[in-house]
Amino acid sequence: MAKAPLQFAMTRILLIDTSSVFFRAHHALPPMNTRAGAPTSALYGTSALLLKLLREEQPKAMAFALDAPEATFRHEQFESYKGTRQPLPEPLRPQLARLPELLAAFGVPAHRAPGFEADDVLATLARRLAGTDRAVRVVTGDRDLFQLVRQGVDVLFIGRRGEKPIVYDVAAVEKRFGVAPDRLPFLIALVGDKSDNLPGVPGIGPRSGAKLVAMAESAADLVEHAAEIRSAALRNAVLGAAEQICKTEHLARLRCDVELREGPLAASVSKDAVPRLRALFDELEFKSLLPRLDALEPLLAEAAAPVSTLV
């Protein structure tokens, strides 16, 4: 696993994009079942990754973010939002039902907020937890979270099966996309996002989109100053999709003002988690994870320490 840049060598808090990790685990591993036939591959992969993160990152604290079951404000504003997503595979249904049990065994907060996605919860947690003596690392396989990257916040991106995780700081995001992290929603408004079914503007690709982003502060600002776009084709494309790009930018931008439940925002994983995890791993027949859990125990805090907001 890639190491963090030097500027992040301070107290680290891990924020886990739980659904993203869970689904990546499902796709990364072959089918696994207990002797009774219960599917377990996604739970196993999630457990293995979390143990690996705790061992290698040794975070001061950790928290999980989850999607709420209700429709979000994005679905209300754009009916086709994420409309191309495939139905939940049947082997994942019983595993998803047991996911809260796994998260609870770690003994750290798991946050969700009605009307918002886990991404918005993560954006809110990152804003409230990052500080001069704290570094936040968001663990995800979702590129939407790259917009959160800034000084004190980076993203550990989990790729597809066989790909090593990559740490994205500001420089890495700018190198990949040609724009600063906080400008990514503006870029998405121009080029679209297939995974979320957000439309792009025909004739505008990543390279020309990045150049347009450099010209203005926002989609609305670009539309207002469209006359300054030298290329007639790009100028007409922007003007022809003016309303759409402003709406898409709004949908693509993560909310960092989500109201979260009362209590700590994150907490350290303590030795108290070990017997809970061992019992669950025994039940799920994760025999290969038991030695990893035993090796991890000396690195864990003696008692859970909650971490609250800085603002």
Q: Could you give me the name of the CATH homologous superfamily of the largest domain?
A: 5'-nuclease
Q: How much helix is in the residues? A: 40-55%
| Main β-sheet, spatial strand arrangement | 3-2-1-4-5-6
**Could you describe the largest sheet, including whether it forms a barrel?**
6 strands, mixed
Number of helices: 13
What is the terminal separation in angstroms? 32 Å
CA-based shape:
globular
Order of helices and strands: EHHEHHEHEEEHHHHHHEHHE
Helix- and strand-based class?
Answer: alpha/beta
Unreliable parts: 1-9
Beta strands, count: 8
Instruction: Provide the β-strand percentage band.
Output: 5-15%
CATH class of the largest domain: Alpha Beta
Tally of structural domains: 2
* Radius of gyration from CA coordinates: 21 Å
Question: Any idea what the CATH architecture of the largest domain is?
Answer: 3-Layer(aba) Sandwich
The CATH topology of the largest domain is: Rossmann fold
Mean pLDDT: 93
